[in-house]
Design brief:
binds beta-D-galactopyranose, 8 helices
């Protein structure tokens, strides 16, 4: 795809574009109102219909005959502005159509996993009727737009897609994860006629061995700018922090896509994290020939910068404004950045602003209950919050570049991020994906590393080394401020391991020490660690039901428990940290059970809804050591097991933990650092309690109580005030008559929202084949979740269940 500016921009295509030194920016017909210097509009509302990958009649005329591309503008019926899409579904983007498909098993074939990898959704070659998605949306174009540059910015579409405007094919993109841009202005009707964008996305083929979703699952923006403008990703900000403060280097690309030279000026305004203007430069004069693009450099010095950090993620903004010589504003772009220093050290790990920071990370796919890959912005934030609650400070976007919305959340919330490439090759398409990703992401202070790839078959080979050396050259060119890494599961001494800056170990944490002694000058970390499998709220393995106990004991052969890897990494400063595989359970790659009804992995520290499993509290104890905690497992509902021993664990960081059953002390034990405590307790219903002591002082407690039958359902919301259009996360817990959680409850819960829409539900059960796009869901071990989009206020959210008292809460929509 394009690499930031296109041939059309370079040569300047519009005869109507005028020199900036003249008085009018736009030619006839005279604009009704002066156009804004730049307009950016998020295209959220689309119409959607499934097409067909094999039957042309069901694919809206696409490929009807061999002349599909014979004439411009007539490739498919559904791309025509006159096409009637009133029968299509109304959807909001981010949208993932795969999440609404039924579960199905593909035909048995040699070497086929029958769809396990993608979570047994009926998509792919075996389901051509579900694998093509068509989207249409009208866009607003006025006479004032004539002569301007108008383009679409897609943050990610899964997958192979064609973009049409008014019937014309205007762009194509084959990566499901890299951002891309499509120019529209030649093809628009500026005189009041319809202007319609159509996207045909083909999700027949996958790029991952995990659930990937389908469709326009990230944001799309429509941008309109003057022919003289700052191109997409045209501002790059780098900062050098030293004892005297910080020097901020701002490089701004300015493009004259008109066919005459222009004189203009670039004014840069720096705005501090509090919103105050701190510097405005003397406008810099620029003269650009027709079709010329130039980079304008500007340095600003801050004597006392507010550094971006995990604890205080301070964000500055640079406003770049292009002015005509008479000072009229031609274009304006705001770019957020952080001032901070990062480095990896082979002896002392990772440093942020000169201080060592252990990377307490998780690796995650982009998938959540109810919505699949189409994660709304507020849900991205909520997921970051859940991980931060455990003390995590770093996220590896596995195995693909993340959504911009997630990076924005990480910038704002102080979560470090590794951005990973999906396709580890050096062919032009793969390089283009890398380039687009880096150009999009390099101003985000949260991004600390570029991961070139993960466990590629060529990882330990000379060819792999060549490919990644080539990619690394591109990284150095596009972003000399960050290092590279690669997640390797073998052959670390060879191939790619000899190319990248920071060596990533997938599993085999116990081999890092020997590697480090062989390569003492190379920083090293765990790019995938642990991989404990657990079913939330379950405490006995039950292979027949695809259930794994949630003690920290179960893992596949290549992996370890949480305790095994963290005790290695915690005490070795040279290991920069580790990224647990995974933070959240994800659809697809169902492990340890890879047949139906298992549709998701059980690797997560949290389940697919973001409900914590018990290991969450192991990490929380040792990743937030200054906050005393104890956590007790299992639950205490074991009817029929009276008198039989139950395996009781405490996670926690108090110096000692005492266990009490129904008020009687079962003794006090010293908590070994970075480990846990265990007892065998003959079951008696009632109350089991862990009491944490530092010295003689009680610093933490946790209690499990035998509950009575389900009596009520309780709703909790992630927040009570939300903007119209945002989502809120509604969690439901089943309680007994005395308000105690019922840890085994599986009641059918019905969510509703007046003034809002329930867009999806989940319960974290890796073996549930209930639909996600629904408003009801059985509780799984006492819990369920709904994602609710706020339409307009007042919003009332309710959850009800037959025989249980219901719960409702209001939200103020602003
Ligand atoms: C790794 C791989 C991950 C996931 C994981 C399962 O090898 O990088 O994507 O498949 O194993 O344990």
């Amino acid at each position: 795809m394009n690499d930031g500016f296109t041939r059309r921009e370079m040569i300047g295509a519009s005869a109507l574009a005028l020199s900036l030194s003249s008085t009018a920016l736009h030619a006839a017909p005279a604009p009704a109102a002066a156009p804004q210097p730049r307009r950016r509009e998020r295209l959220e509302r689309w119409r959607f219909h499934l097409g067909h990958a094999a039957e042309i009649d069901k694919d809206f005329g696409f490929g009807r005959d061999q002349r599909t591309f014979a004439k411009a503008g007539v490739s498919a019926d559904a791309a025509s502005p006159k096409f009637d899409e009133s029968g299509w579904a109304e959807v909001l983007v981010p949208h993932d159509w795969a999440v609404a498909l039924p579960f199905a098993q593909g035909p048995a074939r040699k070497d086929s996993d029958r769809g396990a990898a993608h979570g047994f959704k009926a998509i792919g070659r075996d389901f051509p009727e579900n694998s093509i998605g068509w989207y249409r949306t009208p866009i607003r174009v006025t006479p004032a737009d004539r002569g301007r540059r108008i383009w679409l910015e897609f943050d990610g579409v899964f997958r192979d897609c064609l973009v049409f405007v008014n019937g014309y094919v205007v762009g194509r993109n084959e990566s499901g994860y890299a951002p891309f841009r499509v120019d529209l202005d030649d093809f628009l009707d500026y005189d009041g006629g319809p202007n319609v964008i159509t996207v045909r996305a083909d999700a027949t083929l996958g790029e991952g061995w995990f659930y990937e979703g389908a469709g326009i699952y990230r944001h799309v923006d429509l941008v309109s700018a003057s022919p003289v403008h700052i191109p997409q990703w045209g501002t790059v900000v780098r900062s050098d922090v030293d004892a005297s403060g910080a020097t901020v280097h701002i490089a701004t690309d300015v493009l004259n896509s008109a066919d005459a030279p222009v004189d203009a000026q670039l004014r840069l305004t720096l705005i501090n994290p509090g919103g105050q203007t701190v510097t405005v430069n003397e406008p810099i004069a620029i003269n650009l020939g027709a079709g010329e693009q130039r980079t304008v450099d500007y340095d600003a010095h801050f004597a006392a910068p507010q550094l971006w950090s995990i604890e205080a993620p301070s964000l500055y903004t640079v406003r770049a404004e292009l002015l005509a010589m008479d000072k009229r504003l031609i274009d304006t772009v705001e770019t957020r950045f952080g001032i901070r220093s990062i480095r990896f050290d082979s002896q002392h790990g990772f440093f942020l602003n000169g201080k060592p920071v252990k990377l307490l990370g998780t690796a995650n796919h982009q998938d959540h209950a109810g919505v699949g890959a189409g994660i709304p912005d507020a849900l991205h934030r909520w997921r970051v919050t859940q991980l931060q609650g455990m003390g995590s400070n770093a996220w590896r976007s596995a195995h693909n570049p993340p959504a911009t919305a997630l990076l924005d959340a990480c910038d704002e919330m102080g979560m470090l991020m590794i951005v990973e490439q999906r396709y580890n090759s050096s062919d032009p398409e793969a390089v283009s994906q890398l380039e687009r990703t880096i150009r999009r992401d390099r101003n985000h202070p949260s991004v600390i590393l570029w991961s070139l790839g993960n466990e590629e078959p060529h990882q330990a080979t000379e060819r792999g080394a060549r490919i990644n050396a080539e990619l690394q050259q591109h990284v150095r060119r596009l972003d000399p401020t960050r290092s590279t890494t690669f997640a390797m599961d073998q052959g670390w001494d060879k191939g790619v391991g000899r190319v990248v800056d920071v060596l990533g170990f997938n599993y085999r944490t116990n081999q890092i020490e020997a590697y480090h002694s062989r390569h003492p000058d190379q920083p090293v970390m765990g790019t995938e660690t642990a991989s404990t499998v657990a079913t939330r709220g379950e405490y006995a393995n039950d292979p027949a039901r695809h259930i794994v106990r949630a003690y920290d004991t179960e893992h596949p052969w290549w992996a370890t428990t949480a305790e095994e890897w963290w005790t290695i990494v915690a005490d070795r400063p040279y290991i920069a940290g580790g990224f647990v595989w995974t933070g959240f359970d994800y659809r697809g790659e169902p492990t340890p059970f890879d047949t139906l009804p298992s549709i998701s992995s059980q690797f997560g520290i949290l389940d697919t809804c973001g409900f914590p499993k018990d290991n969450y509290f192991y990490y929380r104890a040792w990743w937030r050591p200054d906050e005393p905690r104890v956590h007790l497992l299992p639950h205490w509902n074991w009817p029929g097991r009276e008198g039989n021993p139950i395996e009781v664990w405490a996670h926690g960081n108090a110096e000692e933990v005492e266990l009490r059953l129904n008020g009687r002390s079962l003794g006090r034990k010293t908590m070994p650092r970075n480990r846990h405590l265990e007892w065998r307790v003959p079951y008696a219903p009632g109350r089991i309690e862990a009491i944490g002591y530092n010295g003689s002082r009680v610093v933490a407690r946790d209690v499990r109580q035998t509950s009575g039958p389900a009596h009520a359902v309780r709703l909790t919301l992630d927040r009570r005030v939300a903007r119209t259009g945002e989502v809120v996360i509604a969690n439901a817990a089943v309680l007994d008559a005395r308000g105690r959680p019922v840890p085994t409850a599986d009641n059918l819960l019905r969510f509703s929202a007046s003034g809002g829409i329930v867009i999806g539900v989940g319960n974290g059960n890796p073996n549930s084949l209930e639909p996600d796009v629904a408003s009801e869901r059985h509780a799984f071990n006492g819990l369920a979740q709904a994602i609710i989009r706020v339409a307009r206020g007042p919003v009332q959210i309710s959850v009800a269940s037959d025989g249980l008292s219901a719960s409702r809460m209001r939200i103020v929509a602003v």
